[in-house]
Amino acid sequence: MSLDVTLQTDPGAISTDPVLEARRQIEVCNACRYCEGFCSVFPAITRDKVFADGDITQLANLCHNCRGCYYACQYTAPHEFDLNLPKALAAARVDSWERFAWPGGLARVFQSHGMALAAALVVGSALMILAIAALPGSGAGFYAWIGHSAMVAIFLPAFLLPLFAIGIGLVRYWREVGGGRVRWIDLKEAATSVGQLKNLSGGQGQGCNFEKKERYTDARRHVHHAIMYGFLLCFASTSSGTVMHYVFGMQAPYGFFSLPKLLGVPGGILLTVGCVGMAMLRQKADPDLGAPGRSSGEQGFIWLLGFVGLSGLLLYAVRGTGLTGPLLALHLGAVLAFFLLTPYSKMAHGFYRFAALVREAQNKRAHSLR
Amino acid sequence: MILSDPNDLARDVWDVVIAGGGNAALCAAIEAAEAGAKVLILEGAPEAYRGGNSRHTRNFRCMHCGALGPLVDTYDEEEFWQDLLRVTKGETDEDLARHAIRTSADCLPWMQAHGVRFQPSLAGTLSLDRTNAFFLGGGKALVNAYYLTAQDLGVPVAYDAQVLHVAISDRTATHLVVEKNGQQVEVKGRAFILASGGFQADIDWLARAWGESARNFLIRGTPYNRGVVLKDMQDQGAETVGDPTQCHAVAIDGRAPKFDGGIVTRLDCVPFSIVVNKHGTRFYDEGEDVWPKRYAIWGRLVAAQPDQVAYSIIDSRSIDLFMPSVYPPIAASSMAEMAIKLDLPVDRLVDTVDAFNAACQPGDFAPQQLDGVTTAGLTPAKTNWARSISQPPFYAYALRPGVTFTYLGLRVDKTARATGPGGLYDNIWSAGEMMAGSILGQGYLAGFGMTIGTVFGRIAGQEAAAHVA
């Protein structure tokens, strides 16, 4: 049996290149293996002896930044091996998103700069104000401010274009990690993992080490659940409205006891509360264990997403008043910015993480058959 | 609570003062604090390096009847005792050892109740899933859990607090002289628990005990176990056990850091290799037994070679047969090139390898078992896995002795109480590596150091608290 030992790194050769540095640290982890029970990353590491670039990308995207391994690690600074695996994998992870993003370059701007996201929000809102001024509708509710067809004309491409872009990124990801044909069972396993955020459970349900250092807590898992399920409810709300409009010919506005509202109101509340919670947790967490240089972009993304939720709720609260117009412009502007930036902001992590979990399911299956 | 001002240590008379900050010290602190005592932990290392050698450990050997936590089947007292007897070759105290073995069963649930989490036995360690309970995240996670528990119990900790002297009057200790932030203070207490490890990080002491060659040894664990308290007690006539000249050393990668390399510096390729010294000569049967049963012997073998260094050489067919080393192998396309890269005499190494290859007998090479594939007419013989070193590229790893711990310790009784010139001390207990020589006089049994630390740490804490109650 042979092994490409030229891929092996000297444990003392600390690198500024995100992939090389992640490889160096992963090799130390593979010789130690004490953290095996924390998450999926460590069992995945033990399946290999040397790690090609695609392996590093896969492991980096599999990591949920729970930080359990950092606080348990006997090789963190001041030890000369200077391990900080959550940071190393986060750096390799954002590096991969920025490489895979199409068109290239955009991701770097929005991953790094919260101000860029804020500017996108302002531009989005301004565009919506212009749209409202130029294309007033004649329907009821929102449609009195902006016509339904104008809304569709703006948001259909704003929804589909980013999906197309993220699709290109995912294809690039899949090629780099050497992914195989996706089976139903892989998707199911990945969805189960995402649905429960298994990789933030600490391996035994005790939670992660995000904001309380050595202590385990479930706070991050809970606020992430709130954001994720809140977002999915909001998305379901919009989808149900679309179906009601086109399939059943039921026009907005809808009353409270309608599918869009019953999904959207709790979704908006969860999304808003989750984003506030996440922003608060990030205040307590050690920034040196996350993606270097991306803190501002990540923070900006949380604010943007939270603002989408909050402005949506407020819009419902001020219905029938003169505030509807300005709030509608803000809300739709935020949604527009959010959609358009999906491939280039932290939102991209959800897609790549899911892909990594699908690939992990494949790798696990292949390994158990071996 | 962290005490950073040295004067805060001297302000009070503590019920129980603990010298040390590893597993045994923390178990003692938690037990004593839970019994209501006012406890102080004096950790000699800075906070980032707290926990002594415990931070490098990964499991704890535990007696159990039926499944317990992560452990499967049964590991009873007799089997545990026989395992200990075998590795120590009788250099143990049966009464004390059986006491530790029996008590270990209660320790696992106690550890869980105090924040320690266990995980299934790690990849590549399946043989231990019946005997050793692995810590989730390893020993540093265990140490973290205990510090958090101690913190929740209100036990203050002083880091960088080196105990220099135990002041003893007759058979009673009155205070400790502690150096912190360059200042010496007297820390008064009613009971004292000494759990500050062995002396393996004091290279001068090691060289005095073992010989000058010990200066070339690597220390696998903490640089803070310098045996300062042990030496002080010895100087005051405390009874000791364990061979003062001996340490437990294993063969590790020669490129490992001088201190604190820990688990990742181990090297598992020796059985599939030939090992030569700096003269390019073989000196021992590399295939005598499976590696887990031989790595400790190889520590001593390499220590006996010139410059305390050796080189394990394999060919390309064996590179994928062992757990990955953290250091990349030295690669060469011919044995002459390898000799140059390793700075070994070229002709000699080539001759050694040629002679070995010529002596290899045909057989079915089977890396997972003693395959009986042997050399003929070669001295020393290789009695298993003797497959020729002939398919380039060739790979080599340097080997050096890596010291895990020293055997010298304080003599204690079943209540963990230490003994002075006039009999048992009134108020001095000892736990962990510092007294492990009482039970483990020779050899090593994986995870048993943590067993001794947990068992006697807890006992010392309970006894000291009862003494001051």
How do the strands and helices of this protein lay out in sequence?
The complex is a heterodimer of chains A (370) and B (469).
Chain A: H1 18-32, H2 41-46, H3 53-62, H4 68-72, H5 85-100, H6 106-112, H7 114-134, H8 148-176, H9 184-196, H10 219-246, H11 259-284, H12 295-317, H13 324-341, H14 348-369
Chain B: H1 6-10, E1 13-19, H2 23-34, E2 39-42, E3 59-61, H3 77-88, H4 94-113, E4 118-119, E5 132-135, H5 139-152, E6 157-158, E7 162-169, E8 172-180, E9 183-194, H6 203-210, E10 218-219, H7 228-235, E11 240-241, E12 247-253, E13 274-276, H8 295-303, E14 310-315, E15 330-332, H9 335-342, H10 346-359, E16 394-406, E17 409-410, E18 417-420, E19 423-430, H11 448-468
Parallel strand pairs in B: 1-2, 1-9, 2-6, 9-19, 10-16
Antiparallel strand pairs in B: 3-5, 4-5, 7-8, 8-9, 11-17, 12-16, 13-14, 14-16, 15-16, 18-19
Q: Short description, anyone?
A:
The complex is a heterodimer of chains A (370) and B (469). Helices cover 65% and strands 0% of the residues of chain A.
Write up what this structure looks like.
The complex is a heterodimer of chains A (370) and B (469). Chain A is an all-alpha fold. Chain A folds into 2 domains: 5-98, no CATH class; 102-366, no CATH class. Helix content of chain A is 65%, strand content 0%. In chain A, helix 6 (106-112) packs across helix 12 (295-317). The radius of gyration of chain A is 22 Å and the shape is elongated. The two termini of chain A are 15 Å apart. Chain B folds into 2 domains: 6-244 and 407-468, 3-Layer(bba) Sandwich (FAD/NAD(P)-binding domain), CATH 3.50.50; 250-402, Flavocytochrome C3, Chain A, domain 1 (Alpha-Beta Complex). Chain B is 28% helix and 22% strand. Chain B has 11 helices and 19 strands. In chain B, strands 1, 2, 6, 7, 8, 9, 18 and 19 form an 8-stranded mixed β-sheet that branches. In chain B, strands 10, 12, 13, 14, 15 and 16 form a 6-stranded mixed β-sheet that branches. A 3-stranded antiparallel β-sheet of chain B has the order 3-5-4. In chain B, helix 3 (77-88) packs across helix 4. The radius of gyration of chain B is 24 Å and the shape is elongated. The mean pLDDT of chain B is 95. Classes of the chains: A mainly alpha (370), B alpha/beta (469). At the A-B interface, helix 1 and helix 4 of A face helix 5 of B.
